[in-house]
Amino acid sequence: MGIPSTMRDAWANRRNSPLIASPLEDQKILRSRQCTQEGVRAGVKAASIACVATAVPTLVAVRVLPWAKANLNYTAQALIISAASIAAYFITADKTILECARRNTHYNDKSA
Fold first, then answer.
1. Alpha helices in 1-112, H assignment, sequence order
2. C-alpha distances in angstroms, 14 versus 7, 8, 9, 81?
3. Quick one: pLDDT band at residue 4, thresholds 50, 70, 90?
4. Confidence at residue 75, expressed as pLDDT on a 0 to 100 scale
5. Of 39, 44, 56, 60, which sees the most CB atoms within 10 A?
6. Residue 97: how many other CB atoms lie within 10 Å
7. CA-based angle 26:100:28, to the nearest 5?
């Protein structure tokens, strides 16, 4: 399966474009990359906190509560913990990137 050769060549030659990007375009690209990195950092931090915050009660419940002991096997425990972590990551990363983009939009309005 793979990428068709024409598509692959077009993608590879995209960087060798004869057009020269303006400094403003370079700044926009740099700010968007910084927003993405900021979102990833915030998402990882939120996911790690959510992981601990859900792992502790889940593992305690499985050892203490009879219903949880009978019904939550290892897969269910892993799904509970990972679902909370994944949700925290994506929600936080999305909010952070949007907030950063909003900041950059206001930055662009003031500089124009």
1. 5-13, 23-64, 66-71, 74-111
2. 11, 10, 8, 41
3. confident
4. 96
5. 39
6. 19
7. 10
Q: Which amino acid is at 59?
A: L
Residue 65 has what pLDDT?
Answer: 96
Q: Model pTM greater than 0.85?
A: no
Contacts 24+ apart (CB under 8 A), 93-101: 93/39, 93/40, 93/42, 93/43, 94/39, 96/35, 96/38, 96/39, 96/42, 96/43, 97/35, 97/36, 97/38, 97/39, 100/34, 100/35, 100/38, 100/39, 101/32, 101/35
**Residue located via tokens 């793979």:** 2
Which DSSP letter does residue 89 get?
A: H
For 107, the token pair is 């930055």
Please give the Cα distance from 110 to 23 (Å, whole number). Answer: 17
Q: How far apart are CA 96 and CA 75, in angstroms?
A: 31
Rounded Cα gap, residues 54 and 75, in angstroms: 15
